[in-house]
## 1
Amino acid sequence: MAHEQGVEARRPSLVRRLDPRRALDIRIFSSESDAPRARRPTDVVLLIVAVLGLLILSVPAPGPTKIDRAITGLVQNLPGLFGWFWEICYDLLIGWALFLVILALVARRRKRLFLEELFAAALAFAVAVFIGRASGTEFSSSIGAISSSTPPPVYLAIRLALATAVVVMASPHLSRPLRFAGRSVVVLGALAGIALGTTLPIGMIAGLLVGVASAAIVHLLLGSPAGRLSVEQIGAALADLGVEATGLAHAPLEPQGVALATGSTPDGRRLLVKVYGRDAWDGQLLTSAWTSLSTRGESPSFGFSRVQQVEHEAFITLLAERERAPVQPIVAAGTATKRDALVVTEITGRPFSALDPGEIDDALLRGMWDALVRLQDLGIAHRWIDGGRFVVRPDGSPALGGFARAETGAPDTAMMGDRAQLLVTTALAVGPERAVAAAMDAIGAEDLTAVLPLLQPAVLNRETRTAVREASWSLDDLMQRCVDATGVEAPKLEQLRRVTTKSVLTVVLIGFLAYMLISAIAGVGLQTIVDELMAADLAWVVAALVLTPIAQIPQAFSTMGASIQDLRFGPTLALQYAIQFIQLAVPSSAARVALEVRFFQRNGVDAGGALSIGLIDSVSGFVIQILLILVISLSGLASLNLASVRSSSTSSSSSSSSGSSTPSLLAVAIVLLLLGAVVALAVPRYRKRIKEAIPRYRAALRAQIASGAAALRVLRSPTKLLMLFAGNLTAQVMLAVVLGLCLRAFGQSASLASLILVNTLVSLFAGFMPVPGGMGVAEAAYTAGLVALGIPNAVAVSTALTFRLVTYYLPPIYGTFGMRWLREHSYL
């Protein structure tokens, strides 16, 4: 009762006494002029997306396409809008950009921002002129498009590119209302340019991407502020919530971009202030999206406002406190006058990570486990256990804080993940032996056994993983300690097949056969192929090289969607690159199975579930390929003239005759299977091995089915299904774009639907061939497909070789780095 009265006495009044003068204060800039800057991963993402978009648009550029005509007609026929409205909106692009430049010039101590805006605009101008010239737009036309608002349309929208570069460049420095105004001007200006006929939709999108890319480059070179409130602003916001604080100071940013500050109350209590600043909203949104990809178990907060995030953390903390769970108490939570959301907690002790090993006794370790178990009894998963979340009170008891990522009604995997994090956290402090002993004493052997599959790097946050790498022991050592203590068998990982001399000779032989096969189909010689390759436009080949590794990004999303477990985006993307490396020497299906099983086991999935995840991913890709073929073929978007391939093949061989025929691959396969079955049953040694193996495989199959049933739950999640199928679909489209870029390098072009049809058919066909990566077979099939589209034979061969070079033979170079990274971080 005394404790409850003390807590109530510390709570501030709900009645706010706001200063009228503060309500009239207008905030123009998000941060102080000397605020610290950082280079953020989100700018890397924006740059990659912009470059990717420009490469995709380069295939149909400069237009017009059917989509361009449809959108232009729709915008121009909008009712109730007149020419003068579009003129004003289009002129606002330049007007708002000049306003931001002048604002930075006349504002106090903002000259650096002024120079950065000019830098971004100059970079956007240079890139826009270069891309326009590469697409056939004269330099004079690009210059004239800056001031002109009349037809004919020009590719690309250089005025929009300049305005977007300045707006995006200045956004981190401006308050949220000005950011919103800038975005509105850019959107309306883009629509106005389409309505006035100054450019086509494809040109508007390209201009927008050029502006975003230019601003992202400047941010990466020079850094950008986080929109963090000053100490004085935090103090004023706390006063709005009825909290009087002194000695306020900034603390490092939280991983999700939330600003932290520390301070004290007049009576000496220490406070931790978490600020979701109004003007840091963009940073929280984009950083949350990035964290959801790079951090296991983290979800983007697209649907949560600043107030909702504060209320979420306060609610879970108060819920745990009401049920007597040892947590750091909430002092205040709410929204200040300037719409900044704050949550204030009391720091009731020293961080566990700051204690010396001699200060940590067995009672404290047992108390930490009891606190976590008590929290989980309430159905709450913390999702971010480390030495900084636990504090040790003056009486030696632990308390848990930092519930921003906590979840109520959490699944068992999240609960076991919290326990794995606590086990590693205590092992970092007192060593594996004492940590395992404390866990055994607190939760018992059975529950500790359930934690073992989650004892993997992917479960830990970045700081904990770094600490483990620097420790004298590894996670494998910790797992072995747990195995010895519980008496269970450690999970075994799949062994990977290595590159052998035999596999290298196989590659050389298949490469020779590929050349013979392609020459037979296309009727061209080696010198003709060499001449075509020497005459290729290297700019298009480089564009294909740049786009190819990016095409693995949607494939990583597909793999994440196939897994019921939460996966981090970074390691999953590295897995895709590692597959590119290993499949050069072994069949791609075998490489994918071996790597994915090992990878998923390192993420806490058993072997049966890992195989099921790989199967789900592969089947979804197969379904997407079949649907693409059906949609394109039945709709008439594209078709293949196979007669041209047959005529080309026939004309290339003078000895062919109408009466000759060859057995089908299906017939040959059936004969070989029957022959193998007869040999296996006729030879006693083989017959005995088969008889002994049947019971083992039967038991293994039952275990795989039982384990795979859990993995199939992913099909019940709309989000997982979207990632699964959208990822595979996007990957297929991007590879078709790469094929189109390779074709453009030799002066030919084809519709996107035709390229998708050829790439999808060849992918399906080569996937059934029992050779590594379909070498030889794929080159021949791509050649045949391109010839069926009407591409000349020599160009078809050169395009097929170039496409396979950039998508299959060169990716193992950077795939080696993916493989090495996964091994160094214990994902393989």
Note: The mean pLDDT is 77.
## 2
Amino acid sequence: MSEKKKESITEKKISRRSMLKWTGALAAAVAIGVGTGYETNQLLRPVTEFTTTETVTYTKAEEKSFIQTSIGGLLRVYVRNDRVVRVEPVVLEEEERVPQWVIEARGKRFEQPHEKSLLHAFGLAYRRWVYSPNRLRYPMKRVGWEPNAKSKTYDNRGVGEFVRISWDEAYDLIANEMKRIKQNYGNSAIVRAGSSHKIHGMLGGEGAGTVADIVFNKFGGSTSVSGLGNSWVGHLSGATFVWGNWANIGAYPQDYYYPEGSHMCCFKDLLTDTLKNSNLVVYWSWDGTKIEGFKQGHEFEHHMRWIREAGIKTVSIAPDMNKVSAFHADKWIPIRATTDSAMALAIAYVWFKEDTWNKNWVSTHAVGVEKFMDYVLGKEDGVPKTPEWAEKICAVPAKITRALAREWAKGPTMLVAQICGANRGWYGHEWSRLMHVLQTLQGNIGRPGGNIFNAVDGSPWVKEYHIPYKRDGGWSAVYKIPPNPVTQFIVLVKFADAILNPPFTWSPSGKSGGSLQGGLTNFDPRKKYTYPMPGNSEIKMLFMIGARLHTEPPDIGKLAQVFRSSKIETFWLVNPWIEPLSKYADILLPANTNFERDDLGGFPSATGWGKHRWAVYLQKCIDSLFESKDEVEIYRELGRRLLGVDVLEGRTVEQVLKAIFDWSTISKWITYEEFKKKGYLVIPFPKDYFENYYMPALRWFYEKPVGEGLITPSGKLEIYSKPMGEWYGEKDPEISPIPKWYDPKVMKPNTWGKYPLIGMLDHPTYRYHSMFQDVAWLRELYKVKIDGYEYEPVYINPVDAAARGLKNGDIVRVYNNVGEILCGVRVTEKMIPGVVRLSYGSFYDPVDPRKKSLDRGGSANVLLSDEPMSKHAYGENLAHSPLEIEKWKG
């Protein structure tokens, strides 16, 4: 056989699963009419699959490669005949295979991984996601929906029967509906809502929301769905009141430059500081292997390994033996979920009784320790917060608490405890306050080797670099984003109640819904907000970018009823995939994935948080699949029809990308043409970094003779919060100026009920929230397959399983007074008795989508109460849910 023939591959058959099937609703199609330009036999139900086979011919010489990002890593994408055939990590060129930085500590060298990009499993499966059978192929209109509020079938939302329409018809329907609703009700009748952590991109994906903002705000604005950040609610409403800044540690101007309005933060140089100076690292309610793998391809795995190699003692406190506990901690301390604050108070008790706290530093850098000490020692309420007292609550033996307290006091101790942990549970703000108070008591805020960080941004980087990512910074360099003229907003945690049962009043919240972006000045719990606000309309139109039904909100069953309500006259959605939320919409618009467009990105992560290792030009790999379009073009066309103008002011997408490139620091190192051709840049790092740039976060504050400069009333760390004292007084039963222990079973009796198990809801390992669930490769790693159906796993201790007659592989009903779901049992000693683990984000699959019913999909959010975290934090509790489990008999 000739070499040429050896290279050729012919008649290669590729199975492609389609999501389109004839429905039995042809009669309805004749009654309502089908989309312009299509016949009645093209009535489609996009949630049913069939298999087709096509023939593709290619030769090896025709293979091309492109640079792209995924959620969790930088990709090289290989394409033949306009089809992606495989993805791999990006292997650096020889001259690039050098670490940007090397940390020298304790006689060792710690080098940043530098031979290739790091990838999470998501990245390796990205091709499967692009070609998912759930891809939304065409613009679609729900069967039975009619414009001009003439629909009689709102209760049919969720069934999922749609008719294919043309793009022109879709644009006309949406534009005409927006104009009608504006004329009849005003702009406040429109809601534009995004979704957290979409696919990567500066213009498309996550960044496309900016183009939508321009269109909607120029059109007259829309009502916002707002509130305290869902993952951060306990931190924002807790730690903020200790050190003043709402963002994570290091976000002060002295540490980090960030664009106005940005919420990005910095733990600048705390990895270096830990390796050089820490005696102990405490991972408290934190699984960095899981959380940080999402964002940066497991780079932090190396950091945690380095901490062990440096000989630093490590402890992990968590209800389950997570991967940090198993692989990166010298000791795992199991703790009952929801009770972390009790253990923290007991640690403070040991320090006060044994006089091992840093009295001198606290006296100059903090205020309010006397009242806190009175509470901890029992002088205030007659209950000393001893380790024995805490043991009855949190199940941690008193001797373990004492041993940890004594080791911690030897110092310096680095505390890894921030977002995505216990701060997301009931009264999570108290745990977050206590983490900062513990470090304050030891003088560990800014101290060499002692601080608080979550290790996302702890490694060396140069704060002056401007690398475009997500939506922050770059867009404002090209366009002036008009403000939203509509001031009405609905607090996220009570969105369903507000829509279904207006008028609805809530408090506390900030001027922008509780964001606390301006520090304490933007927060006042005494102010009341009402929906609808005076002079504003109830909601009549919903527009969503991406799906959030199965990811963020509590009580999904109730939220689904909002989407089915006749109050919502029009519901349209833009997304690349058919997902559970899609079935409730009236109009669906198919968007590109990032493989189908050119774009810019910084570090290839879902959030953009990173160390500026890479700058990325996302190279278009394939043509748009089916009739999907770039989101920029979707909103741009809507702008033309709504406003009669081009919202990009005549610029092409290429010109916008070039303008953002020119704004960024990338332009100092590479030309735009070279960057576009190569696809990435390994960002140069100053060789004199450790001599001239190194400054760990808040070192400036620690080293002041007298603490000042924090954004608090006193300028110091506030163990006693003066604003809280003014708002609530000294004797409020649910919130105090000093952090306290509040038992959720006592404080939330209506929610807690008589359910004996604590459900711990965490981030999934092989999904990013709900994304990638439709990738079969990944589902095989965690789903429990029984009789052909893939059930979401629930992890339970053998003691709890035996008490309920359960074994591995059983189908179980998991329920509480909020909802009920089906799961597959995984029995494991990695869970402590009394606590079970579920991961949120599983696709919502109700038995009857027309009403609140049993969810076969195992969506943990079905079980979450929409009761706010506390009267102080009107946000979502995403971490804990009381529940019971029984073997399914259906």
Note: The mean pLDDT is 85.
## 3
Amino acid sequence: MAELSMMPGSSDEIRQRNPLLATKLYIPPTRPKFVFRPHLTLRLSEGIQGKLTLLCAPAGFGKTSLLSEWYARHATQATDVDVSAWVSLDSSDNDPVRFWSYVLAALERAYPGIGDTLFGLLQSPEPPAMQLILTMLINALLTYPGRILLILDDYHVITTPSIHEGLTFLLDHLPPQLHVILASRSDPPLPLSRLRSSGQLSELRADELCFTLDETVAFLKMAIDQHFPEETALLLEQSTEGWIAGLQLIALSLKGRANNIAFINTFTGSHRYILDYLSQEVLHQQPEAIQRFLLQTSILERLSGPLCDAVTGQRNSQEVLEQLEQANLFIVPLDDERGWYRYHHLFNDVLRRHLQQTSPEQIPTLHCRASAWYEQRGFIPEAVGHALAVASYEQAAQLMEQVANRMLLHGERSTLRQWIQSLPAEYLPHHPRLCITYAVLQAYNLQLDAAEPYLQMAEAHLQNLPGRETTSEAEEMLGEIDGIRAELAARLQGDYIRAIALSHQALARIPRENVFQRANINLNLGFAYIYTGGPAQQALMEAAKLSQATGNLHGVLYAYHYQARLHINQGKLHEAYSDCQRALQLVKDHPAQKRSEHIYITLGDILREWNMLDAATQALKKGIECCEQIGDMGLMGIGCIYLARVKQALGAQDEALLLMQQSEQITQNRKFTGVRNNLLPYYARLWLAQGTLDLAARWAQEHRQQDTSLLTHQLALDSLTVVRVLLALSRSGKALPDRDVLAEALRLVQQIQQAALADGRHSYAIEAFLLQALVLQEQGKLQEAQKVLQQALTRAEPEGYIRLFVDEGAPMAALLQQVGEKGIASAYTSTLLKALGIEENAQQGGKMSSPPPRPLANSSEEADLLEPLSERELEVLHLIAEGRSNEEIARALCVSIGTVKTHLRHIYDKLDVHTRTQATARGRKFHLLPS
């Protein structure tokens, strides 16, 4: 949805507003009592020559400890490894935006600046397809001079399929500068077999990670400073099967015992038994205050002194945490300052079970305290998690409302959806902000029928609030609801009249201080006016001004685009082309705002009309490709229609039909009523070109009787297509004897003409004039036909219309020859006849009053049109055309001669020329200069 696709701010600002937990990017330190395992660290060092290293084993097998030890001892000393990027994952990272944000943040620590553009794209409300972002990441990594290790710890917590798909894409196209290491309790759903068979996968599993007998002896001696007989160590090694967490628990349990050997001899059981039994042993050895601290803080994913103080109600939590670390009691520091810690996952699980068994009544209070602490410090997602953990739904809903808009703006839809779906149904009617948010989420997925009930739910609550104290806030939210409905009506349903009414209603409700919302609504209003007639320019200028004021570059970009569409409707093709060039320049100047798919599709439509079919094809293909990458299926459907028209112009009828069918499939599978309405008349035109008159006539029969008093884009498109079908019926002799199809066509085309001229939409007027001329020709009224065609030519010539005439084929060619023989617009007529494949007569020579675009489209140089000149370069080009010297240009622009030369070099490169004369000629050819 475009309303939410316009997010202001740079990538740095985005990260400041949506901070990431730095502790998750911290490489865990090595333990002071760690058994050195050279055979495993050697395996890790050898494995980085491939793409992926996988450490896969159940909890407690030392995966994280091994990685941190290997990194400290070997990775930083390797000649082919420079830096490492570490992410400690948890269940909250199942949102794709959140997951890849952490990956980017970790990589940026290793390679500063790599995420500058990507953060802005990733955390936008409508981020491009992850494949595009990952492609940009891969290209950026290719510029790194050394090697980077990306270590993803606890990858087993990731369950979102799209994240696995993204990582698979990254691995498939992994640059040689990057190696990925995963630590997981289970095999991830990645192409492991393929990587294994190609020698790109290195694996360490539980049987390799478990302690050997020698390592068991070494560990026990290090842990409790006591020698054990070999048979005792063997018993321990066999009973634990080398399970490192079990051995560590045994070591903690043995401290303070008088008869360690007797205790070990009675010790048997499975891993789960070892865990439960020894954890109790370890807990019971701790002072009561430490036991209470351990149990109460077990509800936390991460520990800090102030947070633990808030949860436990005591004041010495930092000292306790440091004591636990010194005692090696399954606690891991998460930063160098010892400000944050976490418990070992297994130990944490045990503590939580004990808390549930011994003091279940404390759990809600502990979570509420943690939630309040996080809320006070602005960590709302963490606060929501604790509130939901104890079914504190009202508190959770209030917290969600605080961050709903921000999370939408940063594209964290998956998390928002999960949160809202976790609330019982009876809570939503009392939280209109969440209803609006959920409706937007449904609309993003094109579930329009599912979105409206939530808008109604929010509306009902806001309209029935008691008292007057919340009226202004309620009115503003009602305005947001109107704005959402307006956008759905305009962009997806094609109901522009309703969209205009709703937009005005929204503007009346939303205060002027809410510049961001008002910019979006004006943008949508301008969009709707384009297709109905009305003050579109005024709305778009207001949208651009407000967007510029808030740094909302997406808003400015869309304003340029819609202005281009407006100028096309007004018959101002040159201005529309300039709008597209300005928009492309904006994208070029601000790469983080790379949303140019709509610009290329509109540009392709202009180039097609100018008969620059190669360049039109290139632009449309680029636009369609971008749409596919970002998932904008509605715009992709329009792009397919436009490209089908190009293929039809090139005579590739089969390709045109396939493209129309592709657009049809898109609009059938998804609810794009507006696109589907556009598709049908273009289908009818294609049927006419292919000689399938019956299908076209059947369509026209359903669209004959329409009220043209209010001329919308859809009505003009339908009616002008009906006229073409009626003409074809008359020419074929298939018209019914009791029906004067030509009189009907003439009446309809004159109605369109009158309405189009009245509101300044000259593109429809030009088309109506040329169709009227063809109807008069068919009636045998040749003199009248020539006079009407002259009106069409007079309006079309300054803007260089070509395909509008050429697509009418032989009847138009005959009429053009007749007016050409009379000297009417002779040079322009000659150009059109050449495009129709008809050579002009000698007497038809002469220069054109306005230089049209090239009539034929077989030159590769058309690609240069897609590289826009900046505003300053255009100024220099105009001064060149006036014959100014470098010195004169420098004085006129108040710049140095060196700067002028730089501009000249850029102009020459973009226009693919070598001299001023060539630059001037190409500038006129591309309509960058007046004739």
Note: The mean pLDDT is 82.
